[in-house]
Please model this.
Amino acid sequence: MEFLRSTAPELCKKPDEIVREWNERDLGERVYPFLVVDAVLIRVQKDGRLRLCSVLVATGINQNGYREV
Model:
């Protein structure tokens, strides 16, 4: 399967919208008695070089014991 160079930006638009909605959701009425924060190191290509980058992941455990990222 082949893609045109212009295909990638079009494919990336929808995930960007989903991520933006998730990132901007209201957490004001939710209660998280426990919060777990962890960091993961990944390698990313930036400016033509491979670099280490840390990604923080916060997981809230709600009152029912379910985990939410």
Observations:
- Residues 7-68 form one domain.
